[in-house]
Amino acid sequence: xxxxxxxxxxxxxxxxxxxxxxxxxxxxxxxxxxxxxxxxxxxxxxxxxxxxxxxxxxxxxxxxxxxxxxxxxxxxxxxxxxxxxxxxxxxxxxxxxxxxxxxxxxxxxxxxxxxxxxxxxxxxxxxxxxxxxxxxxxxxxxxxxxxxxxxxxxxxxxxxxxxxxxxxxxxxxxxxxxxxxxxxxxxxxxxxxxxxxxxxxxxxxxxxxxxxxxxxxxxxxxxxxxxxxxxxxxxxxxxxxxxxxxxxxxxxxxxxx
Length: 257
Known about the structure:
Blueprint: E1 10-13, E2 21-26, E3 29-35, H1 40-46, E4 53-58, E5 64-69, E6 73-75, H2 84-95, H3 97-105, H4 113-123, H5 126-129, H6 132-148, E7 154-156, E8 165-168, E9 173-175, E10 182-184, H7 187-197, H8 203-210, H9 216-239, H10 243-256
Antiparallel strand pairs: 1-2, 2-3, 3-5, 4-5, 6-8, 7-10, 8-9
Helix pairs in contact: 2-8, 4-6, 4-9, 6-9, 7-9, 9-10
InterPro entries: Aminoglycoside_PTrfase, CcrZ_PhaseVar_Mediator, Kinase-like_dom_sf
Domain Aminoglycoside phosphotransferase: 28-217
Pfam family, one: APH
């Protein structure tokens, strides 16, 4: 990695699961480097959704390195998620035709609720599926499928956890970590954000900032997707051997049902 920058640059791993991200420092210059980022990054940068893409270079090995603008700021806290900026940026993402076009060019096809549920059931451990709360949830999701099956399709981030939102010192908000982006119902993003961060009596205000009105049909979609996302979290923590976290989300399912 270091040989592709001028002498004097210091490069350090940025952590993360993939080990493909790095920090680069030289004098007063700072860059965030990533190996083999998706071409989707360029469109996200152009749309102002992630920090600015400074350059892209292809190495002799075939690897592609991207350099993004270094930002100073902080991750959002859970109580920040009710802010108007979050609602408006998510709306911008969901309405972006350039993002949608690029994902399609990259071969992404829409995911519908029935597809998501079949994939989840196929991947979920048998022991989890025998859990009464999980079994009832899966039956409930199957029952609701006809009412949530076809809706507007947009680019969805897929993991709107507060740690993926970055607020710069200048007040610019970004949504980062787009590896799980999909084309689907925008409720995939909206549902966990509302259920996990926003008091229910404030949903209408948040949705007003986003630009839509809460009605029975939307309420059903939100519940379907938060149940689905919660099941995914249970399986994820179970895979990681974090059984306490898995149990926490199973208990959370009870409150939703």
